[in-house]
Amino acid sequence: MKLRIFLAAIVLAFMAFPAWAQNVSRYVAPSTAAESSRVVCNAACVSYGFNVNSGASAVWVMVFDATSAPSDGASQTPVKLYQVAANSTLSVGYEGLRFNTGMTLVCSTTGPFTKTASATCTFSGDIR
Q1: Per-residue model confidence (pLDDT) at position 2
Q2: Who contacts 62 (Cβ-Cβ below 8 Å, separation ≥6)?
Q3: Which of 7, 10, 13, 109 is deepest in the core (most CB within 10 A)?
Q4: Which residues pair with 82 in a beta bridge?
Q5: Cβ distance 108 to 90 under 8 Å?
């Protein structure tokens, strides 16, 4: 009887909190100055979104499943990319986008598939 009550209590505890709310420890990885890229996580992670503030030039924001920004030049393959007007803020929210290697955000003055780093952006990423 006591075992049934114990098991029922455990089941009810898990039903009270949905799976996405259990063990969620989020970390925000903000810039401390204008930069061309930001490593949001350097290992596998789940992203819940990010913000990018552009400077005086319009930029392409490229999202890579990587632990560092790729070199400038041709043939880049970002996971996601966004065009951002000058002096603007891009806010992106995900319900949980998995990155297998890491998550790196990049600001580029060219795009969408050629990267030319532009150190005019600030970043903030929300990960778990």
Answers
A1: 61
A2: 76, 78, 80, 81, 105, 106, 107, 108, 111, 112, 115
A3: 109
A4: 61
A5: no
What pLDDT shows up at residue 118?
93
43-to-4, 47, 81, 122, 127 alpha-carbon distances in Å: 41, 12, 20, 21, 11
Q: Map out the domains of the chain as residue ranges.
A: 27-127
Type of residue at 121: C
Closest CA to 115 of 104, 107, 103, 126: 107
Whole-angstrom distance, CA of residue 15 vs CA of residue 57:
49
Which helix or strand (DSSP H or E) is residue 10 part of? helix 2-16
* pLDDT band for position 105 (cuts 50, 70, 90): very high
Max intra-chain CA distance, the chain: 69
